[in-house]
Design brief:
2 domains
Amino acid sequence: MDSADTRDAVVARLERSRAELRALLEPGEAGAAPGDNAVSGTFPRSRTMRLLTSKRGAGTVAAVGVGLLLSRPAMALRFAKIIPLGAVLRMLIFRLFTASGAKT
């Protein structure tokens, strides 16, 4: 094998790996992760945010909030450092405003 053949083999392997990465990383493509039925361009795209913005997710967030209120303060503070409270609060405020806007 001379250097041209070796180079062609490396380039072909590189193109295959790039195509595999594109199939994994681009949303809405045939190579998307199993169970990920998000359509490209829809909001929210992540499964976590879709869960949190659903009615079932709101119940889960409420249950976690009540659990934090009933737990020991030290444990609640440790848990509060783990979860992204800013994102959760923004989501709750957004749901509050959209729910009150839909009723009026």
